[in-house]
Structures are given as structure tokens and as C-alpha cells.
Specification:
The protein is globular. α2 (about 30-50) packs across α4. The longest helix has 21 residues, at about 1-20. It contains four helices and two strands; from the N terminus they run ααααββ. β1 (about 85-90) and β2 (about 95-100) form a beta hairpin. The chain has a two-stranded antiparallel ribbon. The protein is mainly alpha-helical and about 100 residues long. It has a single domain (about 1-100), classed as Orthogonal Bundle (Arc Repressor Mutant, subunit A).
Length: about 100
Amino acid sequence: MAEPEAVGKKRTRQANAGDEHLFDRELVDLPPELRWREWMLRGEAVIFAAAEPVGRETLARVVGKDCSIDLLVDDLQEELRDRPYEIVFVAGGWQHRTGLPPEK
């Protein structure tokens, strides 16, 4: 019975390796402004969907190799400044946190 399990694991690894070619992280066909915006949206989506804080390595998997994770998170934090939630660094990663809307 151990054999089918091993086969299943092998298929998963092969599928993941193939998926890597289907996901365009670099976005070289986009102008720099649109590329940065797409990376921001991807980063925000990953952080929003995660049940635990998202580390640098995880974010690096959805953006291009030339993307600065620190600058990306800074821009996300700035964009979310006037909203009732924010991105904070906790436990070695970033996480969405709800709060009160800023006073005006």
C-alpha cells in the first residue's frame, strides 16, 4: 500500500515543477509601472489569503527576481494607510490586521 502514496508524491512534485513555467513572475512584457502594480496586487493577495504571517521567501515566489520585497511592502502599507486594515510585520512575516479607520 505504500507504493501508491509514493507515486502520488512524485506526481505532485512533477506538477509543481511544470506549474513554475506557467506562472510569469517577471512580467517583462509589461511597462515598469504596471509590473510594479501587478507585483503589489499579488503581494497583497498572498498576505490577505494567508492564515499565518507571510515571510519574504513566500512573497518572492510571486514577484520578479528584481523586485524589492521591502519596497513592495512599504508601497502596500502606504496604499492601505486610509483603509480600516493594514499590513504589519509580526512573527517573521507580514500579515493583514484590521483596525479603526484613521481620524480625519
